[in-house]
């Protein structure tokens, strides 16, 4: 099965072209260049979009806006190409990079997303000594996590990037793309910043 997989939930967007478990190519950039990255992967492999048989998209948690970009792209491609899609948690993809690591994604608001999934303050995490924390949240709160006994790999370690090759490996239950739902954990900032009664006052 020829799959295009991508994740845009974190600060680094990843994409990979995978055929029956073999990685044909992968890229890391930003969410706004996702379609260009997909096109480049297909071009470099000597293939066209018509050859794709499935799409795997990262469902978060992570940035609300960036996660929506990935989901919208997956739905658009799946509809245009008439192929199925599957969703994979960004936390699961990070955890798949190495056995025993704890994925920690920056949740803004001085919090991180961790398996559950749930959003917590970094200082509130209960960590066993030597726990290896990976992800952009682990990088942002390195000092806090390391003071709690955790180990955070170097900033340039690949372990901090949710590689799309792992999304492809973890995917199952392919079906309609519009059935793939994002994992937000909490309401988006726009909703929480809404002033109560503002809509009524504006009428």
Question: Can you offer a commentary on this structure?
Answer:
The chain has 203 residues and is of the alpha/beta class. The chain has two domains: 2-91 and 162-186, ATPase, nucleotide binding domain (Nucleotidyltransferase, domain 5, 2-Layer Sandwich); 98-158, ATPase, nucleotide binding domain (Nucleotidyltransferase, domain 5, 2-Layer Sandwich). 31% of the residues lie in helices and 21% in strands. The protein has helices at 34-44, 64-81, 90-95, 136-140, 142-147, 164-170, 189-192, 198-202; strands at 2-7, 13-19, 22-29, 54-58, 85-88, 102-103, 105-106, 112-114, 118-120, 133-134. It has a five-stranded mixed beta sheet with strand order 3-2-1-4-5, with helices on both faces. A three-stranded antiparallel beta sheet has the order 7-8-9. Strands 6-10 form a two-stranded parallel sheet. Strand 8 and strand 9 (118-120) form a beta hairpin. The longest helix is centred in the middle third of the chain and has 18 residues, at 64-81. It is globular. The termini are far apart. Mean pLDDT is 93; it is low at 190-195 and 198-203.
Can you give the helix content as a percent range? 25-40%
What is the CA-CA span between the terminal residues?
54 Å
Low-confidence stretches: 190-195, 198-203
Sequence of strands across the biggest β-sheet:
3-2-1-4-5
Give the CA-based shape.
globular
What's the total number of strands?
A: 10
CATH homologous superfamily identity of the largest domain:
ATPase, nucleotide binding domain
Number of helices: 8
Assign the CATH class of the largest domain.
Answer: Alpha Beta
How many domain regions? 2
């Amino acid at each position: 099965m020829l799959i295009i997989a991508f994740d845009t939930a974190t600060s680094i967007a990843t994409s990979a072209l995978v055929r029956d478990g073999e990685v044909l190519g992968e890229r890391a950039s930003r969410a706004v260049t996702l379609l260009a990255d997909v096109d480049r992967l297909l071009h470099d492999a000597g293939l066209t979009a018509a050859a794709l048989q499935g799409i795997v998209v990262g469902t978060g948690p992570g940035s609300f806006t960036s996660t929506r970009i990935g989901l919208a792209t997956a739905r658009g491609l799946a509809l245009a190409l008439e192929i199925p899609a599957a969703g994979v948690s960004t936390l699961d993809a990070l955890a798949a990079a190495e056995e025993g690591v704890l994925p920690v994604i920056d949740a803004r608001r001085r919090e991180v997303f961790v398996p559950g999934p749930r959003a917590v303050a970094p200082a509130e995490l209960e960590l066993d000594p030597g726990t290896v924390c990976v992800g952009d949240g682990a990088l942002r709160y390195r000092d806090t996590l390391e003071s709690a006994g955790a180990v955070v790999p170097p900033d340039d370690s690949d372990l901090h990037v949710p590689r799309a090759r792992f999304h492809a490996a973890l995917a199952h239950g392919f079906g309609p793309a519009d059935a793939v739902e994002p994992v937000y954990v909490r309401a988006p900032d726009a909703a929480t910043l809404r002033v109560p009664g503002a809509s009524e006052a504006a009428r």
